[in-house]
Automatic annotation (TrEMBL):
<feature type="domain" description="RRM">
    <location>
        <begin position="85"/>
        <end position="163"/>
    </location>
</feature>
<protein>
    <recommendedName>
        <fullName>U11/U12 small nuclear ribonucleoprotein 35 kDa protein</fullName>
    </recommendedName>
</protein>
<dbReference type="GO" id="GO:0003729">
    <property type="term" value="F:mRNA binding"/>
</dbReference>
<dbReference type="InterPro" id="IPR000504">
    <property type="entry name" value="RRM_dom"/>
</dbReference>
<dbReference type="InterPro" id="IPR012677">
    <property type="entry name" value="Nucleotide-bd_a/b_plait_sf"/>
</dbReference>
<dbReference type="Pfam" id="PF00076">
    <property type="entry name" value="RRM_1"/>
</dbReference>
<keyword id="KW-0539">Nucleus</keyword>
<keyword id="KW-0694">RNA-binding</keyword>
<dbReference type="GO" id="GO:0000398">
    <property type="term" value="P:mRNA splicing, via spliceosome"/>
</dbReference>
<dbReference type="GO" id="GO:0071011">
    <property type="term" value="C:precatalytic spliceosome"/>
</dbReference>
<dbReference type="InterPro" id="IPR035979">
    <property type="entry name" value="RBD_domain_sf"/>
</dbReference>
<dbReference type="InterPro" id="IPR051183">
    <property type="entry name" value="U1_U11-U12_snRNP_70-35kDa"/>
</dbReference>
<dbReference type="GO" id="GO:0017069">
    <property type="term" value="F:snRNA binding"/>
</dbReference>
Amino acid sequence: MSVEKDDKNRIGDKKSDKFSFEDHLKRRQVAIDKNYEYTRDYEFYDPIICGSIDGTDEKPHDHGIVRAISSRYVPNKGVNTNSTRTLFVAGLNFQTNEEALKKYFSKFGKIKKLRLVRDIITGFSRGYAFIEYKHKSDMCKAYHESFKANIDGRELIVEYELERKLKGWRPRRLGGGLGGFKESGQLRFGGRYKPFAKIFKTKLYQLKKRQNF
């Protein structure tokens, strides 16, 4: 399969003495923004495509993707927040409570609803939360400025909420999400923490598009 790659969307690989830290931040942000836009434009979620470094894979290449494909996930229909103004926050210290989250994230704007997900039996935190802002601009500001933020000694994972936007979505705990870390044994790419270039619309994408996946 021949794929025409758009090298203009890639982050420069050449080292330069003039390449400053500020340049790095700018280029990284471009990659982050492009990754989210292209993922959203797909209209559906496919673990193989989102787990591929350039979107050209057509077969699973790690156990996490196989687990995601084999799983069945239905978004919580009881959630009544506006998904276009909601952030998904993970990697929380299990001791972090609602007050600590509100104190940090309210500096970006007015929070309409904050839900720290807890175990229904023990009441203990499960390490992730959903935060809905009153205004979308505040949510976007929190998303950009909370990259690798630290609360209670833990580096946070802050993403847009996508489970109600992308058909077929699988969360990270089921092997899905927008990417992973090589250290975890999953050779995964994607997301703002492992940004890649433009996702190319592969034959797999076109097939699922025709089948109205």
